[in-house]
Amino acid sequence: MTLSIPPELISTSEEMLTLRNQQLPNVTESEMIQAVRTLLIGLGENPDREGLKDTPKRVVKALQFLTKGYHESLDELLNGAVFTEDANEMVLVRDIDIFSSCEHHILPIIGRAHVAYIPNGKVIGLSKIARICEMYARRLQVQERLTLQIADALQGLLQPRGVAVVIEATHMCMVMRGVQKPGAWTVTSAMRGVFSEDSRTRQEFMNLVQHNPKF
Ligand SMILES: Nc1nc2c(ncn2[C@@H]2O[C@H](COP(=O)(O)OP(=O)(O)OP(=O)(O)O)[C@@H](O)[C@H]2O)c(=O)[nH]1
Ligand SMILES: [Zn+2]
Fold this sequence. Notes:
Blueprint: H1 7-10, H2 12-23, H3 29-42, H4 55-66, H5 74-78, E1 82-84, E2 91-102, E3 108-118, E4 122-124, H6 126-137, E5 140-141, H7 143-158, E6 162-171, H8 172-175, E7 186-193, H9 194-197, H10 199-208
Helix pairs in contact: 3-4, 6-7
């Protein structure tokens, strides 16, 4: 089948990059490395000592990996894996590991996403649900926006009867610094279609994703 991806979804990452490039000067990798070096000096370290010699380069590489979602698009990750199927029961992929970075402190957000939808003539390759989570997680985020972006992507791609996304996560900026509450979990949800209109459908989903601490 031909896959019709709404243009606003295809262009999400490109739009962001264009916007950034329009407003900000180009920065070379060596300038980024230099910036980390400056940071180390500011922290009272000697960036030339053996253990730190390659650290600025490593930090830049690590940050580029953690934000690689800016350079990905739904179109590429889907690879056409949307199929016509006469299925109309809930599909749930739960316990999708999430490693994101909070946009306020650039510290890790670690958690799990549970993503469900009720098809309406189209299904998506299961791994692609995890890949969609991954693309949006690998950006600077707030948990609320990450949750909405995943829901909106599925809604736009499949026009299903409903989409439900729950993310439960711990924020290292609330654990290792600041308020220092390692036991606090943040739970966010986005409900679309029948999940928002029908409390029984929503309840069925919530029962299936009951918090199940593993770590
Ligand atoms: N809503 C929301 N807030 C977040 C998220 N990640 C981090 N934050 C919050 O962003 C806020 C930034 O608040 P500020 O007072 O500007 O920063 P801060 O002084 O570092 O705040 P503290 O963490 O309270 O020390 C904090 O309350 C963080 O907990 C997120 O995903 N969603
Ligand atoms: Zn933070």
